[in-house]
Each structure stands twice: as C-alpha cells, then as structure tokens.
UniProtKB/TrEMBL annotation:
SUPFAM superfamilies in the cross-refs: DNA-binding domain (SSF54171)
The protein's name: AP2/ERF domain-containing protein
Alphabetized UniProt keyword annotations: Activator, DNA-binding, Nucleus, Transcription, Transcription regulation
Family: Belongs to the AP2/ERF transcription factor family. ERF subfamily.
Assigned GO CC terms: nucleus
Domain AP2/ERF: 19-83
Subcellular location: Nucleus
InterPro entries: AP2/ERF_dom (IPR001471), AP2/ERF_dom_sf (IPR036955), AP2/ERF_TF_ERF_subfamily (IPR051032), DNA-bd_dom_sf (IPR016177)
Cleavable signal peptide: none
MF (Gene Ontology): DNA binding; DNA-binding transcription factor activity
Length: 89
C-alpha cells in the first residue's frame, strides 16, 4: 500500500487517515481501529494493529455484529472495507 493511499507523509498530523473505514495510523506507526456504537455517541475501541488491513478486518467484524452485516448498501446501511469477505460467510 502506498503512502498516498494511507495518508500523506507530512503536514504535521498526529494521526494519518487510511483508505479503510474506521482505520487510522498513529504517528509512531501503529494502525488503530474504532467504531461508533449505533444509537449512541460512544466509540468502541477495537485495538492496535501492525497493518491497516488487519485493522480494517477488525472494523468489518465489529460492523457485522453491531449493525447486522449487509454491507452492500441495503438494510442497515453499513459499509464494509471487504464486502466480498462477508459475502463468503
């Protein structure tokens, strides 16, 4: 994954955003994931990961269980990072 896909290389940002939903990079290099709990303002911490893909899978799993899956735009309106993985289950 290139630097352009997961945030730039400058700008003095503490955390870099990634192309995956619910994933960002800390300035010291760890990838973290969190999700907002439906119907509340509370955020659920999903953890720190070595790769953005691992953090994105954690986010997708939380979306699937909290919002009922259906990441195809129908139903709960949840958007998954890897919708093809959810369809395989």
């Amino acid at each position: 994954m290139s630097r352009a896909e997961c945030g730039g290389g400058g700008g003095g940002e503490e955390e870099e955003r990634c192309r995956y939903r619910g994933v960002r990079r800390r300035r010291w290099g760890k990838w973290v994931s969190e999700i907002r709990v439906p119907g509340t303002r509370e955020r659920l911490w999903l953890g720190s990961y070595a790769t953005p893909e691992a953090a994105a899978v954690a986010h997708d799993t939380a979306v699937y269980f909290l919002r009922g899956g259906a990441g195809d735009g129908g139903g709960g309106g949840a958007t998954l990072n890897f919708p093809e993985r959810a369809a395989a289950t």
